[in-house]
Structures are given as C-alpha cells and as structure tokens.
Amino acid sequence: MYHLPELTPSVNIRRIAVLTSGGDAPGMNAAIRAVARAALHQGIDVLGIQRGYSGLVEADIRPLTSPLVGNILQRGGTLLKSDRCEEFHKPAVRWQGYEHLREMEVDGLVVIGGDGSLAGARQFAAETNFPLVVLPATIDNDIEGSDETIGFDTAANTGLDAIDRIRDTANSHQRLFLVEVMGRDSGFLATEVGIAGGAEMILVPEQAIDLDRVSESLKQGDSSARPSSRIIVVAEGRKPGRTQRLAQALTERGFNPQVCILGHIQRGGNPSARDRVLASCLGAVAVKVLQAGQGGCLLGVENRHLVQRPLADLGERLPLDPALLELAQLIQQ
Amino acid sequence: MYHLPELTPSVNIRRIAVLTSGGDAPGMNAAIRAVARAALHQGIDVLGIQRGYSGLVEADIRPLTSPLVGNILQRGGTLLKSDRCEEFHKPAVRWQGYEHLREMEVDGLVVIGGDGSLAGARQFAAETNFPLVVLPATIDNDIEGSDETIGFDTAANTGLDAIDRIRDTANSHQRLFLVEVMGRDSGFLATEVGIAGGAEMILVPEQAIDLDRVSESLKQGDSSARPSSRIIVVAEGRKPGRTQRLAQALTERGFNPQVCILGHIQRGGNPSARDRVLASCLGAVAVKVLQAGQGGCLLGVENRHLVQRPLADLGERLPLDPALLELAQLIQQ
Amino acid sequence: MYHLPELTPSVNIRRIAVLTSGGDAPGMNAAIRAVARAALHQGIDVLGIQRGYSGLVEADIRPLTSPLVGNILQRGGTLLKSDRCEEFHKPAVRWQGYEHLREMEVDGLVVIGGDGSLAGARQFAAETNFPLVVLPATIDNDIEGSDETIGFDTAANTGLDAIDRIRDTANSHQRLFLVEVMGRDSGFLATEVGIAGGAEMILVPEQAIDLDRVSESLKQGDSSARPSSRIIVVAEGRKPGRTQRLAQALTERGFNPQVCILGHIQRGGNPSARDRVLASCLGAVAVKVLQAGQGGCLLGVENRHLVQRPLADLGERLPLDPALLELAQLIQQ
Amino acid sequence: MYHLPELTPSVNIRRIAVLTSGGDAPGMNAAIRAVARAALHQGIDVLGIQRGYSGLVEADIRPLTSPLVGNILQRGGTLLKSDRCEEFHKPAVRWQGYEHLREMEVDGLVVIGGDGSLAGARQFAAETNFPLVVLPATIDNDIEGSDETIGFDTAANTGLDAIDRIRDTANSHQRLFLVEVMGRDSGFLATEVGIAGGAEMILVPEQAIDLDRVSESLKQGDSSARPSSRIIVVAEGRKPGRTQRLAQALTERGFNPQVCILGHIQRGGNPSARDRVLASCLGAVAVKVLQAGQGGCLLGVENRHLVQRPLADLGERLPLDPALLELAQLIQQ
C-alpha cells in the first residue's frame, strides 16, 4: 500500500496524452487505464499515442475513451503498443513531436517506460518545457528515483514459477540447471528470483562470472548432504549467449548443466496485484501532478510514498545492494 | 528489495527455536527455512516447535536440519503446523512453555504469526524476559509496526486471479458478482484486490455496508455506457455470512447477484516472489537480532527498511488509509 | 489428439453465421476463431450473432473478420457474448430468427453451447430445416453424443487449483473443508476435481446426500493415521445453498467445516490446451460439415474421433459412470 | 473420463513394488499414490524402488505407507526419483534385479515411464516372466499402445502458458518469436502447444526444417493485414541447438527472431486434472491387472478405455497424424 501525495490543482488541464515506450512491462495497461480514468472522471480529454515516441513523431494519435480502457487492466503488454525510437535522439525530431502536441492542443503528457524512455523525456522536457510526467515501468527495476517499477513484480513471479517447475524435476534427478532471466545491466530481477527460488547461485550482470569460483562451489555442493535441486540463476547480461557459454564451460569441466532461457516470457502474463496497484496509483496521481503544474518530473515510489523527482536530477542507474546477494548465499547453504 | 540493518553480535546463541502460530499464511515456510539456514550456517542448533504455542506448552518440539527445510521454500502452509492456543492466555500455561525452553537449553525464540501471536509473545516476553523475535505473518497485513506482512501479497494475487476469471464470464453476460475475500477486521486485502481487479465497489469491514448507497451506485452504473463486468469485493467481516446477506438484500431490491466465497483458498498456493523474499530477509535477520541481544521485539518493515520495534510499544491494529479507497473509486468510474 | 473425419464438399456455402449460447465456457472463443478462420480461408463470409439466440431473434449480427478473431484464442468468455433466451421456446420467435438468416443470405449456422442450446437448435432445425451444426460447449460435460465438451477441462483445472491451495492450509491445521463446484444436474466436474484433488468424499447431484453416511465416514477418518487435509467436493445441485446446508448440518453434528464456493470462477480463465485444441478441431470441421451438406447434427467426440450425430437422436443427459466414484473411494482411503 | 475394465482376481498378490523410470513426467506421483493406495486398501504390501531400474539393481527399495503417499498427488516430479539406467541393457544386470524382487518376496511390479522404460520392461518380462505392468508416463505422448500418456497434458499447458505470455509482448511490439518445446523424436507436444497457442508455424522433429519455406511463409505474413504476434513453435529434435541454429539462419535472412527455450520447465509444475485422473485410474487398475494374473502388459488408454496390450507386441513409436498440422495451418491463416 502506498502513501499518496496531497496536490493542489493550479493549472487548467483540458487535454492530456499518454504513451508507452521501450520494452513493454506487465502493468503498463493498468497505468494507461488509471491515467485515462482519472482524467476522464474530471472531464479532461485523453489521447493515446501509439508506439511510443514513434507515434508522437508521426502523429499516430487517437482518443482514449472509458470503454476503450475498460478491459485492459488485467492484460499484459500495452494497448498503445510500444517501440524504441532511435530517431527521437535527434533534436529536430523531438521538436516535430512537440509541434504535434501543440497542434492537438495537448496540455500535458504522461510517459510510461524505462530508462531509455526517461532519457528521451528528460531531453524533450528540457528543450521544450512541455509539462510531462514519467512513470517508471520496466521489469529491470533499475530506475533512479523510484524504489519500484511497474512490471518488476510480475516478471519476478514469472521467473519464480519457472524455477519452481524446474525444482520438481531437479529433485527427481539430481541435476544442475542454468536458468537465464532478463537483465542486461541490472541484477535486481535475478536477485529477487534467486532468493525467492532458493537458487544455489545468482550470477548478476554487475559482476563478471568467475568460472573457477562457480565450479569450486558446485563441487562443494556435490559432496554435501543435499545433492539435489541445483539451480543457478543467470542474468542475461549485455552480450547475448551468456548462459550458453557458461553451460559450455561447465560441460568442459565435467558438469552436465541443462539450460532454460526464459526470454520474453517474463514480459507477459497478467500483471500481479502489486504491479496493478502500483500502476493504478501512479497513473491516477500523474494526472494530479499535471493539474498542480508540477510537470518535468519522474513520479516514483520512495519508501512507499509516491514522490516527484525533477527529471534533470536523474539519469544514473539504481545500484544493486550487495547485502542481498550475501543474504541469498547465507540461507542457501 | 529491502534494506537490511547492521547488527553486531554480542550474545552467544547456541540453540534457537521457531514456531508458527495463528492462521497460516503463505511464506511461513520460507521464513522457517531462512531462520533455520541462517542459524545452522553459524553452527547454531535449531528446534522446530509444532502447532504454535500449543506445541510450546506440550513440549512438542523436534530438531530442524538443513535437509528438513530443503524443499519447503515454495510450499504454502507451514511445516511446523499452526494453531490458535486459547490456553496460552493463562500465565501459568505460559510459564510452562518457558520451562520447556529452559529445559531444552534454548537461547532464543522466533515467533512467526499475526496479531494474536504477537499478543501472546508480548505477554510471554514481558513476564519471562525470554529473548524472542516476532516476524509478522498474516494475510491481513494489519500488524502495527510493519508496512508489510508475510502472506499478504500471495493472498492478494490469489484473490485477484479469481476476479480475473470472473471478469471473463462477467463480460460475456453482463452480470453482477459479489466476491468475498478474507478480512475480519481489516480491509487491506479487499482494497488491494479491489484496486488491482478493477472492482466497481470495495466493501471493507471498517465501514458498515450502506445498502442504499450500494444499490444507488449499482443503478447509476446500469445506465452508463459500460454495463458489463460488475464486480463487488466484499471483506468477510466479523459476523459470518456477510456476503450472503448482502446478496439476499440486493436480490430483494431487484438485482441478481452471483456469489463467490474464496475462503481458505487465499491462504494456500505457492508463495509469491515478494512474500518469499520478505520471509527470507526477515528470517535471516531475526537470527542476527537474537545474536545482537536485541530480543523482545517485532522485526518488521518500515519504508523498506527492516526495523525492530519493542513489543511493549505495539498492540494497535494498523489502520487502512481511506485515500486508497477514494483512488479506487476515481479510476473505476 | 483427435481423429478428423474425411468430408467431401457438396454444397456451395458462401456465408455462415456463428453464435454462442447458454452459460459461457472457456474455449468458446477458440471455437469461434476456428469457425471464422476455416471459413474465411476458403473465401466464405462469416457473421457473428451477438448474445446467442437473442441476437438471432433481434438481428444483432455483425461480420467477423480475421483480425477480429485474432487475439481471442487465449481468452475466457465469448467475444459474441452469450445469453439464455426464453423467448426462443416459442415457434414464432424461432421463425423470426430464421427470417433474419434468410435475409442476410446465410447458408449455414454454427451453434456453440450446452444442453439448452442443443434443445433450441434441435427444434429450430426440425422446423426450418436450416443447415446447422452444434458444437458441445459446457463446463458440465453432460452432452449426449460427445465424450467431451469445450470448457470442461479448464473448469476442472480451476477447481483443482482451488483444492490444491486449500490442501496447503488444511495440512497446516487439520481442518475440514467443503468446496462447492458447479454442476446442477451432473457430477462430472465434481468427480474429475475430486479424483484429481484427492478429495475424501465427492457428493454429486445424481445422489442425495446421506448425512449419516457422511458423518460416519468423517468420524472413521478422524481416528485414522491420516487426520489432516480433509476435503469434501460438493456439486452445487439444483437447489441453491446445498453446501451451506451441509455445513450447517455437519456443524450441528460437532464438526467444524469451512466453506468455499467457487461459483463462476470456474467459467473463466485462459482455456486449457486441451479445450483449445478441442475447440479448434470442432470449429474447423464444423465448416466442412456444412460444406458437405450434412447439417442438422451435433459435431462431438466419440472415442477420440470427431463424429456427427443427428440432432433428432439426441436429448438425454450423458450419465456419470459410478465406477469412477468407486475408484475415487478406493485410492482415497 | 475413462472406461475401466472388469477384472477378476485370480492370483494371490501379497506384495508389489513400484518404480518410476526415465525422464520424469508430471503425474508420476499421482500414479505412485494410486498404486499404493489401491494395494494397501486390500492389505497388499507396497515397496517403492528408488531411481528406476538403478534402484532395482542396487536393491534401493523401501516400504511405501499410506501417509508417505499422502501429500504427493499434487506434486510434480517423482517421490521415488527417476533415472536412466544404461546398465539395465545387460541381461546379467536384469537378472540381478530379478533376484532382488524374489528375495523381497515381491509378487508383482509396476513400472511407470516412457519408451526407454517400456523397452527395459519388455526385455525383463520376456526373460524372467516376472509379472509386471507398465504405465505410460512421458511428456512426449509417443507410446505405442496408448492414446495418452501421463504428463503430456501438463507439459502442453506449461508450454501454452509460455506462449500466452509471449503473445502479450508480441502484440505490443510486432516481433517474431521462436519457442522451443521438448520433443526429440515426436512432435505431439509441439503440435498440441502450437494449435492451442495459435502458432504461425509448428516445426516438428518428424520433418526437417525447410528454411526457404519458413522464410517465404514469414514474408507472406509480413505483408498481411495481421503483422503482429508471430510465434513459431519448434520441437527440440535430436541434435541440441536446433532452435538457436534456426534463429541464426533467420537472422541472416533479415529477420530478428527472439528465442525462448522452455527446457525442463515443461517437466515440472502441479499436474493437470487430466494427468492426475489418468494416473489415478491407471495406477488403481494396474493392481487389479496383477491380481487378475495378467501381467506382462502395458496398461494404456485406447478410445477412452483402459486396455492391456502385451509388451511383446509393442515397440514402435506412435506416429503423428499430419492432418492435425494441416488443421493448424488452416485456422492460423
């Protein structure tokens, strides 16, 4: 449960637009719905921009009505589709998007997405001063300025479900499994899944894989009283094929690892309760932030309070606390 | 992700005991495992007390080994079984439990449970000064001193899954559904499920049901453009049959509600990622709290930090923030 | 996996219509999609009739295109909505429906539904001789002429999931649970859920509840070596409140049963693999049956073969084999 | 629902043994439980052989009691663990197993497993004439003599769940996904998952991948009105890395496929209702087959009837019906 901020309306907002950008995350639809409903409830028009910044640049924009967002709360993916828009790195292209918002008489914009989307929004807001609010939505949970991001909890549960299934069969056979979860730069998802799933080891992208250490640790485990159910959670990392390479190396050292690559499975599925509540709160409050004339911010969660952080202050990736990896090690052995 | 406290060992703990008490909550097993593993890892003996305070009083106690807790992380329920022990309200009975702990040379106790368990622990600790730590575990989320409790997140997702299923059929038929979730005194679960599930109304136990208002609101909905998928989430409340009585009253007023009573379904199921991570962190840190000589406390979560609160200070039920119910109303319409 | 019939086209079908009728069943959407896709693939127009026979009578009919059925395969409920249409019992009303089909130049009709829908279709076909095919879709599995019905498998898995969750908590507390599943006249669902869930007793609607026998059996179980996890599956039966009455009676006899009423939860959820494959095969073959000029039939499954049965021959309810209840008893004890 | 055979007891069976062999399949535990309960119910002793034929050869055998099988019905994996035993191909080793059965006064053996287990059992039975019954359990569904195998339905639903999740994100991004399911020699699982999941293409191991045809078909789809949600289901095949190689080849041709490898996820999870009912029926009837003196057979399902097939007659792999792949193609486009 979150603490909601008190915000006093000071600006007359008559029309807002909303877009989803970057990799999709479960709960984006819940955020779209909350933005739309909270606005429509007050007589504010709502426009849906298709395919992220691409649709903003190409003016691929259509009205959102209450029925249109009426049955999307429980759906993964995003009604508005999403995209990564390389073009949006060019100032001229961003100004084009700005013109479209002016032409359509939009008074405020809500951007739902991850770190790439945040970077685009920061540049856009700095240049144009257009009132916008960014809502953090990524399964990576690595947005500075917010303890939580929309989609992380669902992705963690999806990864955990896979581990639980593998554990059934691992216990039957005393095998070694490598389970690759998403996470190019951040180990939050791997850590959450690894602790929750009781993984023997968690290999995050923040640390290079020390093959000797992995191999040594596996041998120690072999001689212990609990030879069964050995699962290593591996974050995918920047360079594709990380888990396959590790499997190859372990095979050469005499182990017989089985590989599962969850891939985009983690992006889908009905969003969890937590992701829907988070998305609903962020979406509804985003409208109030625009009405309070306080755009140019990320609306995130800090210590369970919904808080605004100026976009200009942000940009670092949220670091992973190593104490959690130590804890994982402690209770595994 | 949680922030873990720094704790310096100051007491020589050689043997601890752990019990689960009150209504079971998914994640209790993960907490038992974390307590046991964190202790065993440091050479501390671990005893499992069966059936809560009843087992303490009857000395129904057996050693926990690493293999015994090796495959319970993902299971609902509790390996140690749980019970409500009326007898434990009597001082003499509590002293009997104390004697058993002394006889078995137990240096510290971890109690995993809800508000009843907390009350028992507070009395026990006040009288005997026995070092103990309480970990909040209840699907009701209503423990003063902790923002979160083990089991709430799983129960919310279970309730949400039911709502999602009902929504499928509600949309096919334009029917009205009453879904009863748990919650005798607290509306946290109903609120979380209701917001996440997009319920038309959320009837919490903190507020009496105003039949005229419910009926009026349903009629307004009927005349709106969105006649489909009408779901009311009802917390069970103190007096059994609350939902059935509401259904009866609504039928008399011309509605045709369908009833689902989730009951104990919400207590089971594989615990969610969040509940397992919470339970794992609390369990591992509980051992450190005992080693730091800081017993007599609840170990809970405040603003994502694991914090200790003296048992003597606690006892109130955590209140529900009405702002969340207003938010639910705002985005529903 | 099913054996598909060989059918030779003999009639020029240019336009077909499809409707879903009665209680919705998971997989109806998969059947709609298969009918539409199989027809469109051959250049046949497809019309979707809304709300079952009601939409036929009121000419609430619209074209179905490939994109319209493009994302429904995995959804519970029915895109075409469903309804029970009392009016359709009147011959004049049925003829009105017939006129609408003629006006819209429909050459064949596919009816997806349960026993009530079958009865309506039989009368309609007998009177008007309009070419139609009925596909069995009901979570009750009680359609004469087909071993399987669309929706049964999903509903069974939903009920089973509830039992699995309750078992977690039952094992923690040694309690007695009554779980009410759907089934007004037929015990197929209760039997499948009961066997799969290891229920101590299965109370089907085909047999009156013998309270003495239930009570006696529970007492025997109490004195056995396995006192935990006692779950009784109760089919809802014709008269509402069956399970509540049983709970009351058992309470009076000194038991303390907990009640769960699954209700319409069982109708929703993503359809199972089996239901989708069944629905896909039936839907695709239904078009071929119409093209072969062999309307006036139920297209069902017998011994894994898709077979046609003349509507005139059908009408009895499929009986439950008592050998299965005996088997359930055998492996429970 | 299955039709159970009538069997008349003719042999005095006092003690039976049961083992699970080969790759584990969800529902094996349900079969173990049914064998044990049906035997114990009649006063027959039950021994559990650990790790398949390995445990038979090494006399790793222990009694199964009713409580021991009391909470396994809903668990994936196998209580008895499973193994592939290369040694069992040697006659001398098989006779060693036979001696252990004689020494322990076992009157009948139930073998639960797939085609490798069946081959071992056939040789063992032919040489020793020891009374045994094989129950088909493999997620591949490819056992001659049985339409269905324990584990297939659960594995299909697990694969389908993955596809449903990917579809969410595929629809958001218009991407191409390759999903690898199990199946070294048989395409049953790929076909079931592909039809149920609405896959654009299903690549079974029975057919070599024609890269030109795949590529051509993908290009046609690109130019169609439904560019979104493109999922290709790929059976793993004999040679590891099949899906990765296909991804590589498609990338070279200008596509950008994303890969998911489900791997052993498909072997785990709570068994489906269908698998548990199948396993329960087969297990209970297996005991009756031994009591009827009719060992030396596979007990399978044909046309929904539980039937016995002499082991000597079996050995071919069940072929996949190409009509189903044609049907999949028909309703996809």
Number of domains of chain A: 2
How is the quaternary structure best described? homotetramer
| Secondary-structure element pattern of chain A, one letter each | EHEHEHEHEHEHEHEHEHEEH
- Cα Rg of chain A: 22 Å
Short account of what is shown:
The structure is a homotetramer of 333-residue chains. The first copy, chain A, has 2 domains: 180 residues, Rossmann fold, CATH 3.40.50.450; 114 residues, 3-Layer(aba) Sandwich (Rossmann fold).
Explain this structure.
The structure is a homotetramer of 333-residue chains. By secondary structure, chain A is of the alpha/beta class. The first copy, chain A, folds into two domains: 15-151 and 271-313, Rossmann fold; 154-267, 3-Layer(aba) Sandwich (Rossmann fold). Chain A has ten helices and eleven strands. In chain A, strands 3-2-1-4-5-10-11 form a seven-stranded mixed β-sheet, with helices on both faces. In chain A, strands 7-8-6-9 form a four-stranded parallel β-sheet, with helices on both faces. The longest helix of chain A is centred in the middle third of the chain and has 22 residues, at 152-173. The mean pLDDT of chain A is 93. Chains in contact: A-B, A-D, B-C, C-D. Chains A and B meet through helix 1, helix 5, helix 6, helix 9 and helix 10 of A and helix 1, helix 5, helix 6, helix 9 and helix 10 of B.
Draw up the topology in text.
Four copies of one chain form a homotetramer.
Chain A: E1 15-21, H1 28-40, E2 45-49, H2 53-57, E3 61-63, H3 91-103, E4 108-113, H4 115-128, E5 132-136, H5 152-173, E6 176-181, H6 188-197, E7 201-203, H7 211-222, E8 230-235, H8 242-252, E9 257-261, H9 273-291, E10 297-302, E11 305-310, H10 322-332
Parallel strand pairs in A: 1-2, 1-4, 4-5, 5-10, 6-8, 6-9, 7-8
Antiparallel strand pairs in A: 2-3, 10-11
Helix pairs in contact in A: 1-9, 5-6
